[in-house]
Amino acid sequence: MVALEMKTQFLSLLFFVSLFGTALTSHAQTAAPDTVGEHKMLKMLAVDMCRQLEQENKKKPLSGLTQADAQQVFVRVFTQAVTSDKQLMDRVGGMGSEARAYGEQMGRRVVLLLLQDCPVSHPLLMRLGESQTPAAAAATTPEEAKLVNTLSAEFCSAMTPRIKELKGLSSEKRLPVVSGQLEISFKAHSKEIQQLYGANAMNDSGKLRALGTKVGAQSAQQCPSIMLLFVE
After folding, report:
1. Cα separations (Å) of 103 from 1, 32, 95, 156, 188?
2. pLDDT tens, position by position, for the chain (232 residues)?
3. CA–centroid distance for 223 within its chain
4. Phi/psi of residue 63, each to 5°?
């Protein structure tokens, strides 16, 4: 259940990527799609976006933007980066009705690259996810923040070495592996959880889901490669 909340939180963080397909198809030129060098192309796109976001942050701190302003900035930066990349526009232009789905998939991967390599983007991305999962936006107290950071660090440390193993499993089989790791961490920190959320917290599914959502939001920043396994 907690693992499902993590997946839901991360997907909600990416809810706005549906806009990317529209941005792509409205500017694309017709050409045959080509799959060579896709990762390099997306990496360059993320680098370009990060550079633009650094400039935006100098004008006005991204952490101070409203959810609506954050979405506007992100879509503008994404569109500018995409339309300046002729190789990408040529690729998408030949996809026809499949262009939108490809744009959404590409958007998810670009967000993951930003989470991994572009710290300045983090406040913006978290703001974009708030409208769907407000409880996951941030820990409410220093004590909760410490617990969430600890649980996220343990989760990422335990799961990152198992990426190859997880990739070999179906989506249905991946989730129990993740759930098992979360249960281990939650039980190991049951004392802290009970101190923060009450003596019966370990038996309260609502409180555990809320905590799991916060851990998911933090893990999306700390180990996006793991979260990618649940959005591909």
Report:
1. 30, 16, 10, 28, 41
2. 454 444 444 444 443 333 333 333 333 333 333 455 777 888 899 999 999 999 999 999 998 888 889 888 988 898 888 888 877 777 767 776 776 777 777 777 788 788 778 889 888 877 776 554 444 445 678 899 899 999 989 999 999 899 889 888 886 788 788 888 888 899 999 999 999 999 998 888 878 877 887 787 777 767 867 766 665 5
3. 10
4. -70, -15
Amino acid in the structure at residue 172? E
Contact criterion met (CB below 8 Å) for 117 and 46: yes
Q: So where are the chain's domains? A: 7-134, 136-228
**Residue 3, SS3 per DSSP:** helix
**CA geometry: angle 186, 191, 196, nearest 5 deg:** 90
The conformation of residue 199, written as its DSSP 8-state character, comes to T
pTM of the predicted model, to two decimals? Answer: 0.51
Look up residue 180 and give its amino acid. G
| Among 209, 211, 214, 230, residue whose Cα is nearest residue 112 | 230
Q: What is the rounded CA–CA span in Å between residue 154 and residue 181?
A: 9
CA distance 211 to 207: 6
